[in-house]
Design brief:
Elements (H helix, E strand, L loop, with lengths): L1 H48 L17 E2 L2 E2 L4 H4 L2 E6 L5 E5 L8 H14 L3 E4 L2 E8 L2 E8 L1 H36 L1 H39 L3 H28 L7 E4 H10 L2 H6 L3 E6 L4 E4 L1 H18 L5 E9 L2 E9 L9 H6 L9 H6 L6 H11 L3 E7 L3 E8 L1
Parallel strand pairs: 9-11
Antiparallel strand pairs: 1-2, 3-4, 3-7, 5-6, 6-7, 8-10, 11-12, 12-14, 13-14
Length: about 425
């Protein structure tokens, strides 16, 4: 239990940190990509408005006025920016090519790039590592290409570094959280240990007075004969003894000691024998009892606890089924394990059958119908034990209401 709590703490912490780092890295790189595109678009805008050339820098202007469309002009701008232009006629055929501002592209390559860009029908886009814009003019079109290889390389390097730093941070945090998580959970662990120790000690201490009370009841019955008071004492002893056993079982499950008795067994036979024992009880209550178990299903687990799981769910179905109602128990294959379903009709109120209340059924000492639970001798702990048994067997259990007056419990195991 403590190890599972520690794993959950580490998982939640690392998932939260991962989401924060992912958001941070994503935002930084998105801003970086936006700035790169904005700068290139600004340069293309200036070139397109100046017939494919950069205007001369007006030194008389304040520095801020030489900044346009995200691109800052300087005396070195024409030499720093690698670009080429191609003029096309109205049919899209190259008529003039200028590759004087770039060495990596020949005139034939420039003509091919421009004609392909024109045929695409887009006003702007990428051609390999070049971003282009197509400008409509009176005599045809002007296609301007800017080399983005340095920007793309810088962007890729920044993305790689940021991801590497993020992964390193996550790894470091995982190591630190793994080391210090137990210390952070120490108060909770101590509280749980004290709670389990209290339940164990109290359970053993209660057994002694229960045995004495039972012996005294036997003496009273021998000396004074049977009476309703002695019968009441015996009933309460039985209830308390059952409660103590259930509490001790929950404590045992929390400690995770049940797994030591795991072995493969025929769960089909176990379910049939355990659930079948309730058929006679259902018939005496004029209730229909159906059993649909697929033969030959195996499960690696603790057979006694599975017997208690089936017994708890079927007993719960009998207690809360409507008069003359139906109970159905089925067992079918499910993925690598099995699925156990226990269905019953019910006359419980609509409020008790809401999804929220059905989820609470597995909480310890919760009663969907407290008055009825007391009449049937329940403590609201049986379904909590059922949930613990299912979780020990790496499964899940849930309940849902069907057609407004039917309740079905689903338990997957294995």
């Amino acid at each position: 239990m403590i190890r599972e709590l520690q794993k959950k703490f580490i998982t939640i912490t690392m998932v939260s940190l991962f989401l924060v780092v992912l958001l941070l890295i994503g935002t930084i790189n998105a801003v970086n990509i936006y700035q790169m595109n904005h700068k290139i678009d600004g340069a293309l805008k200036i070139l397109s408005e100046n017939q494919g050339t950069f205007p001369k820098l007006d030194k008389g202007k304040p520095p801020g006025e030489n900044f346009d469309f995200g691109f800052r002009l300087s005396e070195e701008t024409p030499f720093e920016t690698r670009y080429f232009t191609v003029r096309l006629n109205t049919e899209g055929t190259a008529s003039q090519i200028d590759t004087s501002h770039i060495r990596a592209i020949s005139s034939s390559d420039a003509r091919e790039y421009a004609e392909e860009a024109f045929q695409n029908g887009k006003k702007s886009g990428f051609k390999e590592s070049y971003k282009y814009v197509v400008v409509a003019q009176d005599s045809g079109y002007l296609v301007i290409f800017i080399d983005c290889s340095n920007s793309l390389q810088t962007m890729s390097f920044f993305l790689f570094i940021s991801i590497a730093v993020a992964l390193g941070t996550l790894l470091l945090m995982f190591i630190l959280v793994s080391i210090f998580s137990r210390k952070a959970l120490t108060p909770i662990i101590e509280s749980m240990e004290k709670q389990k120790q209290f339940i164990t000690d109290a359970g053993h201490e209660i057994k002694t007075p229960l045995a004495i009370i039972s012996a005294n009841a036997d003496v009273l019955e021998l000396t004074g004969g049977e009476s309703e008071w002695i019968m009441s004492i015996r009933n309460q002893i039985t209830r308390l003894d059952k409660l103590v056993k259930n509490l001790l079982m929950l404590s045992k499950m929390d400690e995770g000691t049940m797994k030591t008795g795991f072995a493969e067994f025929d769960i089909s036979r176990t379910v049939k024998e355990t659930a079948g024992s309730f058929k006679a009880v259902a018939e005496t209550q004029n209730k229909t009892f159906l059993l649909a178990v697929e033969e030959g299903l195996k499960l690696y687990g603790e057979e006694n606890s599975i017997q208690q799981l089936v017994s708890t769910l079927v007993d719960n179905a009998l207690k809360y089924s409507s008069a003359g109602g139906r109970i159905k128990v089925s067992l079918t294959p499910y993925k690598r394990g099995v699925k156990l379903e226990v269905f019953n009709t019910t006359d419980m109120s609509a409020d008790a059958l809401t999804k929220e209340n059905l989820n609470k059924l597995f909480d310890r000492f919760y009663r969907a119908d407290s008055s009825r639970s007391r009449d049937t001798g329940g403590y609201g702990i049986g379904l909590s034990i059922a949930k613990s048994i299912v979780e020990v067997h790496h499964g899940k259990i849930s309940a849902r209401c069907e057609n407004g007056n039917e309740v079905c419990f689903f338990a997957t195991l294995g």
